[in-house]
């Protein structure tokens, strides 16, 4: 059955290009409901001396799943200047297509076709698996999680916003849990001024997420 309320490829192109109308933005955001959405710099290096929790600790501060809505989307459009860049015709749409490429945790990173400096580290897949398992109250028991180690790329998008910011967005599905679409978005800032602006936009999100995740962790521990 065709879902008439599902987002189209053009919806996603506009959504990631930061020129999306509210109705289409809602359709795109609904696609990621119940899944994991990551927004992070491509040059992030996972700590080698992590405490217990491993990748769960590494990527929690980049997990925007709980705050991804139309309000946060348009806040980013406005304050990151990406919306203005697109409206002025300065954004280069590089790639936007449906895919069916299978990848696994062991295969390594996803590298942007337009810019090899844009990389999604394979640890992100591990985070998604462990988070889904934890949500299902199996914690680190990956075998019983509905999402196994086999992911597949549903869609790929790549943009250059005015020569200042390059971004890659990957929509991921997972074998065994095909109904969910995970979003992993990595960016690289080439302009020092924009880097400073984004820092003050992203950091409050990170602090909010850390506080929210710690609260959720405490609640789960109390119920055990």
Commentary on this structure:
Helices cover 38% and strands 24% of the residues. The strands form 2 sheets. It has a 5-stranded mixed sheet. The chain has helices spanning 9-16, 22-31, 55-59, 70-79, 82-87, 123-135, 192-223; strands at residues 37-41, 91-104, 110-111, 119-120, 150-161, 165-174, 182-189. It contains 7 helices and 7 strands; from the N terminus they run H-H-E-H-H-H-E-E-E-H-E-E-E-H. The radius of gyration is 17 Å and the shape is globular. With 224 residues, the protein is α+β, with helices and mostly antiparallel strands.
Helical content, roughly?
Answer: 25-40%
Order of helices and strands: HHEHHHEEEHEEEH
Low-confidence stretches: 138-145
Distance between the termini: 41 Å
Give the number of DSSP strands: 7
Number of helices: 7
Strand share of the residues?
Answer: 15-25%
